[in-house]
Amino acid sequence: MNRKGESVMKFAQILAAVMFMVVGFVSPVLAAKDTVKIGALLAVTGPASFLGAPEARSLEMLVAGINKKGGLKGKQIELIIKDTGASTEKAVSFAKQLIEEEKVLAIIGPSTSGETMGIKKLVEEGKTILISAAAAEAIVNPVGKYVFKTPQKDSDAVIKILEQIKKMKLTKVGILSSNSGFGNAGKGQIEKLIGDHGLTIVSNEVYDKAANDLTGEVTKVKASGAEAIINWSIEPAQAIIIKNARQIGFTGPIFQSHGFGNIKYVEAAGAAAEGVMFPAGRLLVADVLPKGHPQKAVLTSYKKDYESKFKEDASTFGGHAYDAMLVLQKAIEKANSLDKEAVRTAIEGLKGVVGTGGVFNFSATDHNGLGIDAFEMLTVKNGKFALLEQAVEKKAAPKKKK
Fold it and tell me: Which of the four, 237, 241, 267, 277, has the lowest number of CB atoms within 10 Å?
């Protein structure tokens, strides 16, 4: 190679090296400018994976769809999911990372009430929007400026159950609840509201959320003379409660919380689950809703997309994360900004947002945005979820004469 060729080669090498350094330095800056970071604290693995796994999949699916359509305010969403394993300690640690290091616009999750309560103060101090996928009413009562949630209210779920028990002309109730944040919150709401419905608690047992045999607890409830059981739990133990209660001969109605909205619990309880009643959003019965129902289109679309993509039944839990992302998206559109304070204020002004859990109407004093009308009473019929009202009507309908 002649000198001229060598000079050209050296120049090209130097230019390439300079370009590499420039690109290597500038790319992260450009990436930061071209994306909006949204964090998620979800129990993807561990004892609450039945919550966190469908929540993570729902978020990933929705974010991919939003990005495909241009993102938020022209920026692609960078979704940062942290697997908490349902550990409050991990949730706190990851929340600090998302707020201080990643500087996310908002955090979706955590999956459980205990984790959410564990980071509530942290997000308030960090002035970071939190839209929880957990159910306990204490998450938003009292209201925290930056804390919101999408699952329906505990108190409304309790009222739906108590109204049904009263309708069945029963008065003596046995309470079972897990020793979790969700279990404790629900137990408190039952104790607070049961007197208003003319009912009496004759047994009140708290059990280990990791238990695999609850014969002792349900035996105490049966011995108390309870005519109906209310069990408040989100853990797999709620299926064990059903099996053990039937095994010892309890024949009264069994009610579960809105944490029963996963068909896997029915499968785990087997034949004993038949007739179990619980309040839930309409996702589980989307196919039987009338065509004009305001949630019909959203529910059927989410259910179809999720089940075709992930080859598993959609659950109300995945819907809570879906709703959280939807609320955030609508708030950004309303605020016409990615400024945290503007988006936070916009959430409080959202009205008529149709999600999987209901139609959301937020305000400065209501950071859940759902009322008792977000619930339907469901039952287990032939191993599947069904509207209680329809199941009762079919059972009561007289047989046609041949």
Answer: 267
